[in-house]
Write a structure and sequence with these properties.
Largest interface: A-B, 42 and 44 residues
CATH architecture of the domain at 165-241 in chain A: Beta Barrel
Mean pLDDT of chain B: 87
Radius of gyration of chain B: 15 Å
Strand content of chain A: 25-35%
Shape of chain A: globular
Order of helices and strands of chain A: HHHHEEEEEEEEEEEE
Helix content of chain A: 25-40%
Strand content of chain B: under 5%
Number of strands of chain A: 12
Oligomer: heterodimer
Shape of chain B: globular
Low-confidence stretches of chain B: none
Structural class of chain B: mainly alpha
Radius of gyration of chain A: 21 Å
Order of helices and strands of chain B: HHHHHH
Structural class of chain A: alpha+beta
Number of strands of chain B: 0
Low-confidence stretches of chain A: 258-263
Number of helices of chain A: 4
Mean pLDDT of chain A: 84
CATH superfamily of the domain at 165-241 in chain A: Rod shape-determining protein MreC, domain 2
Chain lengths: 263, 162
């Protein structure tokens, strides 16, 4: 009975007052090792795969990576010129310069066991400067934002979680929308898109930076379906996240100029 | 009756640690709903075996840890585990004389209640399950009960936990 009342109080306190972050961070010190240990088998098998490889395979890998590096370097050459041009044009237009973002490499050590939520646990925490609301990206796109920080671990809410939404824009023409998670790892939905809006299948959605939380210009998703029903007020637009949300192991925490406040 | 001194606390702590490890172990995406409620099973066992030591206070503490582990609302698992432990405390004398199959069916109901309470709290936060899949762990836990019972009873007798 008493336990029930206490639990009810706790639930209310956590849901309505958001005053328990410090307590949570403290208890995380006890629970984080469980994630770390449960990640060990995967870590070992990764290590094994990297160390017990045939020579032929390594030579193959080397060749492929060298080719890839060459390609990327060629692209970077162009990038430098383009960036300079961009800065000049921005100066001409009197708009603010784009800041370059700093990143911190983190490793994903756990996935929250609750199947209804899309939360992951990282091995970097406040001791490395991770803060609440910090954006997380992988090699392909935006993954989510930090919602809980302990000393040496952080919990990240993925963009596909049913409670997550972020402002995006179509890369092709700048049309803005809100991309909402619906609790499926391979799907995002755009809210309140007028039927006359110019959004087509295959369009790349990038973060618009309007929410103040995510930096501008990171790829978020690709539009996979646009369904216009004359009986509905809005078009139904679904998109597939660019980031490998259920595969990425090495991820990047982004430090931008201004950190948004956590809510 | 002379109260026996408590002994073997470390066995209880270790079994809970093992349950937490299994609770945090990553599952493939397709099997995400098919995780047995390890912590609940271990808690029920110790409540039935040692009701004078493991009760609602332990359940509440373990529940809080589980909340932080899962990143759910603080109090969600604390509430559901307290409810389940209360039931176990009421029923332990009956459960002890049941055979394994009868026990497993009661476990099914108890873990089911655990899931229902958790779901209910989760719905308050706006992220409830969309189907009845959330009851699957209750079924799996009941299936696993005989194994859990054998292992934990073996441990309890081997190390004389009282």
């Amino acid at each position: 009975m008493l336990a029930g009342v206490l639990a009810a109080l706790l639930i209310t306190a956590d849901l309505r007052l958001n005053q328990l972050a410090a307590t949570r961070a403290l208890i995380s010190a006890v629970t984080f090792p469980f994630y770390w240990v449960s990640d060990l088998p995967a870590r070992f098998s990764n290590w094994g795969e990297e160390n017990v490889q045939s020579r032929a395979r390594l030579v193959d890998d080397n060749e492929r990576l060298r080719a890839e590096a060459l390609l990327l370097e060629a692209q970077v050459q162009q990038m430098a010129a383009l960036r300079a041009e961009n800065v000049r044009l921005r100066a001409l237009l009197n708009s603010s310069a784009l800041l370059q973002d700093d990143v911190l490499v983190a490793e994903l050590v756990g996935v929250s066991p609750d199947p209804a939520r899309h939360l992951v646990v990282l091995d970097k925490g406040s001791s490395e400067g991770v803060f609440n609301g910090q954006p997380l990206i992988d090699a392909n796109g935006l993954m989510g934002q930090v919602i809980e920080v302990a000393a040496n671990s952080a919990r990240v809410l993925l963009i596909t979680d049913a409670t997550h939404a972020l402002p995006v824009q179509v890369n092709r023409n700048g049309v803005r929308a809100i991309a909402e998670g619906i609790g499926r790892l391979d799907r995002l939905e755009l809210r309140h898109v007028a039927s006359t809006e110019d959004i087509a299948v295959g369009d790349l959605l990038v973060s618009s930076g309007l929410g103040g939380r995510f930096p501008e210009g990171y790829p978020v998703a690709t539009v996979t379906e646009v369904e216009i029903d004359p009986g509905q007020a809005f078009a139904r637009v679904t998109a597939k996240p660019s980031a490998a949300l259920n595969r990425s192991r090495h991820v990047l925490l982004v430090f931008t100029g201004g950190a948004g406040s956590a809510d | 009756m002379v109260q026996q001194p408590a002994q073997g606390t470390w066995v209880i702590v270790l079994t809970f640690a093992a349950a937490f490890l299994l609770a945090a172990y990553p599952l493939p995406t397709g099997l995400r709903w098919a995780r047995p409620e390890w912590v609940t099973l271990v808690l029920i066992y110790w409540t039935i075996a040692l009701p004078q030591r493991v009760g609602i206070v332990v359940a509440f503490g373990v529940g809080l840890l589980l909340d932080v582990l899962e990143g759910s609302v603080l109090g969600q698992n604390a509430l559901s585990l307290s409810v389940v432990t209360y039931l176990a405390l009421v029923l332990y004398q009956r459960l002890r004389v049941f055979n394994v199959l009868q026990q497993a069916s009661v476990i099914f109901v108890m873990v089911g209640i655990n899931q229902l309470v958790s779901q209910w709290v989760q719905n308050l936060t706006g992220v409830g399950a969309v189907s009845l899949l959330f009851l699957l762990p209750a079924f799996l836990s009941a299936l696993l009960w005989p194994a859990v019972l054998t292992v934990l009873r073996g441990l309890r007798r081997r190390y004389q936990v009282a």
